[in-house]
Amino acid sequence: MTFDQFQAAIRTLNLRDRATLEEIKVRHRILVKRFHPDSGEKNPKKIREINEAYSLLMTYCRNYRFSLSREEFYEQDLKERLRLQFGQEPF
Predict the structure, then answer these.
(1) What's the pTM value of the predicted model, to 2 decimals?
(2) Cα(26)–Cα(18) distance, integer angstroms
(3) N or C: which end of the chain has fewer CB within 10 A?
C-alpha cells in the first residue's frame, strides 16, 4: 500500500486524521447500507470502492504497531491526563 492509497481510503470513508477502529467500522457500515444494491442509491462501483478502502484500512490496523508508552497513554486518555496534571482538585 502506498501513502496515496491510504489517504484515498481515508477520504472514501470520510474519516478524520484520528479515528478509532470502531469509528472505521461504523462508517463502513453506514456507507455500505447507503450504496447497497437494495437501497435507493444503487451504485456497484461505489460499494466496491468503499469495500476496498475498508479492507485496506483494516489491513493497516492489523499491522499497526501500537505505542504503549506513557506519553501515548496520556495523549489517548484525556481524563487520566487531566487527573495527572491537576490531581484530584475539582474543576
Answers:
(1) 0.75
(2) 14
(3) C
CA angle 28, 39, 51 (to 5 degrees): 30
Q: Measured between alpha carbons, how far is 44 from 19 in angstroms, rounded to an integer?
A: 26
Grid cell digits, residue 67: 505505542
29, 21 in Cβ contact below 8 A?
A: no
Helices (H), the chain: 3-12, 21-35, 44-63, 70-76, 78-86
Q: What is the pLDDT of residues 65-81, one digit of tens each?
A: 888 898 989 888 888 98
CA gap 86, 70 in Å, rounded: 17
Tell me the residue length of the chain: 91
The three grid cell numbers given for residue 13, joined into one nine-digit string: 470513508
For residue 62, what pLDDT is reported?
92
Q: Which residues contact 23 (CB under 8 A, 6 or more apart)?
A: 15
d(CA 58, CA 10): 11
Asked if residue 65 lies in contact with residue 50, where contact means CB atoms within 8 angstroms, the answer is: no
